[in-house]
Amino acid sequence: MQFLSSNIKVDLTHNKIKHIFLRDAEFTVIDTQASQDAIILVDDNPLECDCRLYDFLRYIEGRMHPKVQNYFHIIPGNLTCQSPDELKNVRVTDLNSKTFTCVLKEPKVCPEKCDCFLRPEDRAFIFDCSHKNLTSVPSDIKIIGFFNNIPGLQLLELSDNALQSIEPGTFDNLINLLFLNLSENHLTEPRSGIFDELVALKSLDLNTNYMVKLPEDIFAKLKNLRDLKLFRNNFTNLPRNLLRNNMKLRIFTLFENKRNMTTLPDAFFANLTKLEMLKLKRNGFVTLPEDLFWGCTSLININLERNYLRTLPRYIFRDLKGLKILELNFNDLQSLPDYIFLNTEHLVKLDLSKNRITSISKYV
């Protein structure tokens, strides 16, 4: 929009403007020597907050080129979104360009049974295939090479379906995927290798399935994994070296297992130096190995409540100098070994309520 007068005020309020598209303006204005200082009012218009809104959000936040910011002054006032439904009546000034996502309607990109979104800030794609009653991964996703043209796919939601298995090769080529959610399905024994190509993956959610066992190497290639959720499954045991290669793991969640596990393997978490939080309640644990947490020097929070623990090994917390929260309530503890908390010098919450403790040694 260009005007002969450089100080003009243009009132476009109460019209039927659906889009404010500034992408071309950034390239055009940078190359011009002119400066207009025009003021443009755009309040009370039926704005469609689709992907084209992104550059206007950048403009509002002052994130466009300085020449664009100074060329004209668009005043949004109380301008609100009229669509899509999830953004209806939301003020555009309350949206953040860095986290803004918009509906992607291109059939060549979006699988037929999924809802797809784009985060323009980093060109990240988000595919939401959850709640679709799927018994298998959509056929157009399973085609080898389907994702070759979508290197920006970062989040894939497949939760709350009826998936019973994942075919080998399904996730091949997803080298930039950061988040994968397979929770609330019917998975029982996922195969070795199905996650091997997800080299950038940071979060994997497998909660609320029917898994009874896992291959020891199923997570071996996920060297960037930070968050792993395995709660509400049917495990009776887990492989000792299941997490051996996940050296960046920070949060591990395994609670409310549908079968009693009684214990965990020796050194199961040992030497995971980035591990910060463990959620291990309601699993039926009766005993725990002494070296379970050895080398976990960053561990801050452990929740072991509502198990059947009767005692704990003397040196189980040996290396946990940074531990702040330890929840052992609702177990069957009768006593605690002397010096068991000797090295937990930063502990601020210790919950031993609802146990069977009759006395505590002064050396604990």
TrEMBL record:
Any one GO cellular component localisation term in the record: plasma membrane
Assigned keywords, A-Z: Leucine-rich repeat, Repeat, Signal
LRRCT domain segment(s): 45-103
Pfam families named in the record: LRR_5 (PF13306), LRR_8 (PF13855), LRRCT (PF01463)
Organism (species): Temnothorax curvispinosus
Official protein name in the record: Protein toll-like
Highest taxon in the source lineage: Eukaryota
